[in-house]
Design goal:
about 250 residues; alpha+beta; Alpha-Beta Plaits; four-stranded antiparallel sheet; about 60% helix; rod-shaped; membrane
């Protein structure tokens, strides 16, 4: 016999397990909030932008071919910025005091599509240190890239230096976002667990379960009478019998 589940049964299951669903959701939100606010280390980001051009020819303006060549070299510049040739010099700065591997793990280099501007971003638990690493890396790259490219690059401009605002905001963690995600995940987990518990619950709960189990049609149902209603029925019946006996004796 094919089993079907109605929307009413689904809502009944959710209603019966509502406390479980709410509890799991609240626990997930509380745990996420506590971890985000008190255990995760805030990470700050500082960014700088670098414009790199090849050595100019005698022409007063760049030709489209020059611009296209610069665009093709952007990926090369991105790799050079995080290479040991650059980071070894950055690591020698006494104010930074990090290894090349540590620096490389903090630096992200990228560029917009069809743009000659290289974006250099640094993430660190210390906002001032992130800005210092970004600026130092950009300066070292500016000094070293002409030597690395055999003097084919002479026009390196730092468009925007990394700086630190008065009240810098960390880019991660984001406690409110984490709590929101935890609420959604907790709600999904609670609903899933509620249906799972209902699926493994083999007890007979109503007449439909009896029909499904035995495969026989239901001919009748004995209604359930609450104790209070039963007492009221007995009291009314006793009063009626007393009245009938009184009328009989009076006649």
């Amino acid at each position: 016999m094919e089993e079907t589940i109605s929307l009413k049964e689904l809502f009944e299951t959710l209603k019966k397990r509502l406390l479980l669903i709410v509890s799991i959701t609240l626990i997930a939100a509380i745990v996420s909030g506590v971890v985000s606010f008190f255990f995760l280390t805030p990470i700050y980001q500082a960014s700088t932008q670098i414009l790199v051009n090849q050595k100019k020819s005698d022409q007063s303006m760049y030709s489209p071919g020059d611009v296209q060549t610069n665009l093709q070299l952007i990926s090369t510049y991105n790799a050079i910025i995080t290479s040991p040739r650059i980071l070894d010099i950055v690591a020698e700065n006494p104010d930074i005091n990090m290894t090349v591997a540590q620096l490389k793990s903090k630096i992200t280099v990228g560029s917009e599509k069809d743009s000659q501007v290289v974006n250099l971003s640094v993430q660190d638990p210390n906002a001032k240190m992130a800005a210092k690493i970004a600026n130092e890396t950009a300066e070292v790259f500016k000094d070293e890239i002409p030597k690395i490219m055999n003097t084919n690059v002479e026009n390196v401009s730092i468009l925007a230096k990394a700086d630190v605002s008065e009240n810098p905001a960390p880019i991660k963690p984001r406690p409110l976002l984490n709590v929101a995600i935890a609420i959604v995940v907790g709600l999904m987990a609670g609903v899933g667990l509620a249906f799972l518990l209902e699926y493994f619950n083999n007890t007979i709960k109503n007449e439909q379960d009896v029909e499904k189990l035995l495969g026989l049609p239901i001919l009748g149902v004995i209604a359930t009478i609450e104790d209070q209603k039963l007492e009221d029925i007995k009291a009314r019946r006793a009063a009626r019998n007393t009245k009938v006996r009184g009328e009989t004796l009076g006649s």
